[in-house]
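Same chain as my last thread, 114 residues:
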Amino acid sequence: MGCAGSSQTKAEGTAKKIRKPKAWKHPQPITKSQLIQLREEFWDTAPHYGGTKEIWDALRAAAEADLTLAQAIVDSAGIIVQNPDLTVCFDERGARYELPTYVLSEPKNLIRSS
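reply #2:
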């Protein structure tokens, strides 16, 4: 017998509420344009890592949206969220999608131009 708190009611995965990733730091301070370039390079190559283009497109839309819209996108696309910060997700067929933190939020050491 297990503990009362050990039930697996969230086995579907989509019940998880998503959140922004924890604060992080890039190895070197980078500018907003460098961050945008990194993100574009990731999204351009992401479909080559497996999974479907439709799920990658939905993940990109979710990553670029506010949390409420991102949750709606993830839910409607049938994306199973393993990590609430969207760094690890699965589609309904079991394909794994890993998102780097830099496509989900800005680093603490982002150089802001004045």
